Amino acid sequence: MASAPAPAIEADGVSFEVGGARLVEGVHLAVRAGQVMGILGPNGAGKSTFLKLVSGELEPTSGRILFDGVPIARAEPALLARRRAVVPQSSQLTFPFTALEVVLLGASVPGFGHARDAVAAAERALKRVGLIELAERRYTELSGGERQRVHIARAICQIETAPRRPGETPLLLVDEPTSNLDIGHQRLVLSAIREIAAEGAAVLAVLHDINLAAGYCDLLALLRDGRLIACGPPAEIVRNDLLSRTFGCEIDANTTPANTPFVLPITRDAVEGGQAAARVR
Fold first, then answer.
1. What is the pLDDT of residue 168?
2. 262 with 211: CB under 8 angstroms?
3. Domains of the chain, earliest start first
4. pLDDT, mean of each 10-residue run, the chain (281 residues)
5. C-beta separation of 242 from 259 below 8 A
6. How far, in Å, CA of 224 to CA of 222, rounded?
7. Given strand 9-18, what is the order of strands in its sheet?
8. How much is the pLDDT for 271?
């Protein structure tokens, strides 16, 4: 029987400490090519810090990050440029570039050369996020949600044009990719991210919307206070006990007719009704 391929992204007992505060502690996670993992947790859980550790922006205090089994600590900048594309929570850009020119930055990483199809790749990326009609619009004139989609397109363009070597899995790391988007564009962006995974990439995404994460991710990881609470398929993770423990409030999980797990907030009326019923009993 053939052994399973090594994870494309692996956190091996990763911890990170700064100023005496432990922001991430002993996290073990693994994502393979073709998978999308959503990182969920309350504010301050260490989600963005963990993503920065995976990207190589921060160095773990202990433990290690592996790309296809190779420690990121040994990776040269050129290799990282070929391997992974990152979309942070926010990106500031004040140059009067057009949306297309910003996306083309993904194909102009040192070492990429001058790909003849760079413009075509950038245009395809803009189409994926629904912005091709704004390709010539100045970036500074775009709305917050449109700018966010431009940066996602830039990362997609980088993945498509990177001159990777055999055995190198492309990695897409995104931090809150849907935070400024309406429901239609949330679906569009997450569908594009799923397409990138289907084409062979491994994706790690920090998300806040549990329902979106359950609907679009293959795996969910719950973080609280820098520690991993649980990790697995959505059906195993979207549970009252795990979510209530992670977020520190009562959460009611259910499933749709298509068996996709979802959660609803516990309303004030429901809480008061439960308290009243308890008093009657």
1. 82
2. yes
3. 9-280 (3.40.50.300)
4. 72 94 95 96 95 93 90 82 87 86 84 69 95 95 93 94 83 93 93 95 95 94 96 94 91 81 68 47 44
5. no
6. 7
7. 21-31, 9-18, 62-67, 70-71
8. 46
For position 279, what pLDDT does the model report?
44
Taking alpha carbons only, the member of 12, 24, 32, 19 closest to residue 48 is 24
Give the model's pLDDT for residue 113: 56
Rounded Cα distance, 132 and 99, in Å:
9
Query: What are the Cα distances from residue 147, in Å, to 46, 71, 98, 120, 193?
Result: 25, 33, 11, 20, 17
Two tokens at 209? 């919307």
Q: Could you tell me if 41 and 222 are in contact, meaning their C-beta atoms sit under 8 angstroms apart?
A: yes
> In the numeric block, which tokens belong to residue 46?
């260490």
Strands 219-224 and 227-232: antiparallel
| In contact, 17 and 60? CB cutoff 8 Å | no
The full 3-state SS of the chain, as one line of letters, equals CCCCCCCCEEEEEEEEEECCEEEEEEEEEEECCCCEEEEECCCCCCHHHHHHHHHCCCCCCEEEEEECCEEHHHCCHHHHHHHEEEECCCCCCCCCCEHHHHHHHHHCCCCCCCCCCHHHHHHHHHHHCCCHHHCCCEHHHCCHHHHHHHHHHHHHHHHHHCCCCCCCCCEEEEECCCCCCCHHHHHHHHHHHHHHHHCCCEEEEECCCHHHHHHHCCEEEEEECCEEEEEECHHHHCCHHHHHHHHCCCEEEEECCCCCEEEEECCHHHHHHHHHHHHHC
Cα–Cα dist 108/94, whole Å? 18
Identify whether the C-beta of residue 126 lies closer than 8 Å to the C-beta of residue 120: no
Residue with tokens 């004040």: 94
> Counting beta carbons within 10 angstroms of the beta carbon of residue 264, is it exposed (0 to 12), middle (13 to 18) or buried (19 or more)?
exposed
